[in-house]
Amino acid sequence: MSEASSSSSARSAGPSEENGVRVIPTRDFKAAADCLADAFQKDEVAQYFVKTRDTANWSEDERWTLHVRIMRSVVRAHCIKGLALTVGPDHDCVALWMPPGRNMDDRMTMFRSGMWRLNLKLSREGRHRFHKEFLPLLHHTKSEVLGDLDNDSWYLVYIGTKLEARGKGYARKLIEYVTNQADAKGHTCYLESSNDINPDIYRKFGFQTVKKIQLTGGPSPVNLDIMVRRPVPETISHEITQIEHHGQTAETA
Question: Residue 17: its pLDDT value, please?
Fold first, then answer.
């Protein structure tokens, strides 16, 4: 931060429903985007293109509308080209993954998702930050960090949980849905974290911080942790699960 045909292609990465996890069809992109808009309403990176110097006179409603538009376009792009997942009765937690060998940069995806319309909705400074700083920095960093693995890795673009649904283990399900597949096929996983609290959480799933970058076009720098998860062999993964289960049992007892 990737219709029936897009859902079927996404399902090729694994079962359409497992442990309550569901692949989001394109028709549900608005509900999924609303979850992410709520989860990222105070996130510095998500607001980096919305709260700019030339939107200082915008109302909060105008900024919120733009924030939601961005999320809806990104979610729809992942329904079309990536893997959009949810869990919970009402899209309570949503994760957007880009599978190995895929991206949402092609013209058809940009058109079908509505990403192209963002150029008409973002302010002049917002467009500059998005196209001239944010996207080039993220693309360059991912390529630099992963090297030859860049096109053969899973990319966690967004994951967010509604406030009232937190603490139920939903995020774990959406992360492990993919990391289990990545381990089975020997794929690396990659993400950027814009929240100081989250890296410790991601480390529980095997991610490690390998680099720190900054967005510097605003009044103060916005920090991102670049995190990578190497594939874990099945035997080691099983042992870790057994240890975690034993620890939970001991704590409950």
Answer: 65
**Residue given tokens 């490690």 in the structure block:** 208
DSSP conformational letter for 52: -
Handedness of CA 195, 197, 198, 199 (dihedral sign): positive
Q: How far apart are CA 40 and CA 65, in angstroms?
A: 13
- Looking at residue 233, its pLDDT comes to 83
Q: How far apart are CA 28 and CA 115, in angstroms?
A: 17
Structure-derived torsion over alpha carbons of residues 118, 119, 121, 124, reported in degrees to the nearest 10: 140
Rounded distance, CA 70 to CA 135, Å? 14
Side-chain half-sphere exposure of 251, counting CA atoms within 13 A: 6
Inform me whether the pLDDT recorded for 13 exceeds 70.
Answer: no
Q: What is the mean pLDDT of the chain?
A: 87
Q: What is the DSSP letter of 173?
A: H
The mean-pLDDT minimum among 18-27, 142-151, 237-246 falls in 237-246
Q: How far apart are CA 209 and CA 80, in angstroms?
A: 30
pTM: 0.85
Q: Say yes or no to pLDDT of 130 above 70.
A: yes
CA Rg value for the chain: 18
Residue 237 structure tokens: 């993964």
Angle at which helix 170-185 crosses helix 234-252, to 10 degrees, equals 150
- Alpha carbon 198 to chain centroid, angstroms: 13
Pull the structure tokens for residue 211.
């680099």
In 3D, which of 253, 164, 247 has the Cα closest to residue 204? 247
Pairing of strands 153-161, 222-229: unpaired
| pLDDT for residue 7 is more than 80 | no
